[in-house]
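Inverse folding, one chain.
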């Protein structure tokens, strides 16, 4: 794995979670972004001439020899919160920017049950919203069936989380689901190989850094955009913060 700055222009895969009108959070700041800041960040991408692309194009540029001439950005949003429909998607549409939202397939229209420590569980987009946004050009990916830590599961349960979420999201959208995101960024080499076997084309992790440092299309590195990132902080992450950092694949701990 290389830790030198990339020779080619940086390709940054940005990671967001909840985007809306949120007060400054006491904890988990990387899980929130105020919509006004999100709008300012999109304006910056537009003014600075970034090429905003989807995961499929990122794969082509990083691993399949497609030219990577301009600084490029992929916008990814984890979990499929209902605030995306209300706030982020209209802002993205104003710029004509693509985005990929990773959905938890058993929790469509329900609450983010895995966030059990929160006093109030955030709502997730329902089937009607997913279909509507899909028609409008939003790209959806899988974030597994139940948002588990994949490395803690048996091989059979890993397989179900990875394969069944793809099938049910394809039923829901009527289109291929090509992109996967490991919940909590937790994955084993077995999980990674199952993602490839299921027919996904890309998978994103929570390893930080420019995606140019990714080892393969199923272990893509990302940059988390935090509540505190004003436009200057955002620009710094895009232009200067490229080094790879964070946990890659972990050993399987689940029952055989
Ligand atoms: Zn998640």
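Residues assigned per position:
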């Amino acid at each position: 794995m290389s830790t030198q700055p990339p020779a080619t222009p940086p390709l940054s895969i940005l990671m967001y979670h909840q985007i809306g009108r949120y007060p400054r959070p006491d904890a988990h700041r990387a899980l929130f972004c105020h919509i006004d800041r999100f709008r300012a960040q999109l304006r910056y991408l537009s003014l600075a001439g970034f090429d905003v692309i989807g995961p499929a194009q990122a794969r082509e540029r990083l691993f399949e020899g497609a030219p990577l001439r301009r600084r490029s950005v992929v916008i990814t949003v984890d979990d499929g919160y209902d605030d995306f429909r209300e706030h982020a998607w209209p802002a993205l549409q104003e710029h004509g920017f693509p985005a990929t939202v990773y959905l938890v397939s058993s929790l469509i229209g329900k609450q983010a049950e895995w966030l059990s420590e929160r006093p109030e569980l955030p709502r997730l987009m329902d089937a009607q919203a997913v279909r509507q946004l899909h028609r409008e050009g939003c790209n959806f990916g899988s974030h597994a069936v139940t948002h588990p830590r994949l490395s803690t599961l048996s091989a059979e349960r890993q397989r179900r989380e990875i394969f069944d979420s793809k099938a049910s999201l394809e039923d829901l959208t009527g289109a291929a689901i090509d992109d996967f995101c490991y919940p909590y960024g937790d994955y084993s080499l077995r999980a990674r190989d199952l993602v490839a076997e299921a027919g996904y084309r890309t998978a994103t992790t929570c390893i930080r850094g420019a995606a140019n440092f990714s080892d393969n299309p199923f272990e893509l590195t990302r940059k988390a955009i935090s509540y505190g990132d004003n436009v200057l902080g955002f620009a710094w992450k895009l232009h200067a913060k490229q080094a790879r950092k964070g946990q890659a694949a972990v050993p399987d701990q689940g029952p055989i």
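The CA atoms of residues 9 and 217 lie 18 Å apart. Residues 155-173 form the longest helix (19 residues).
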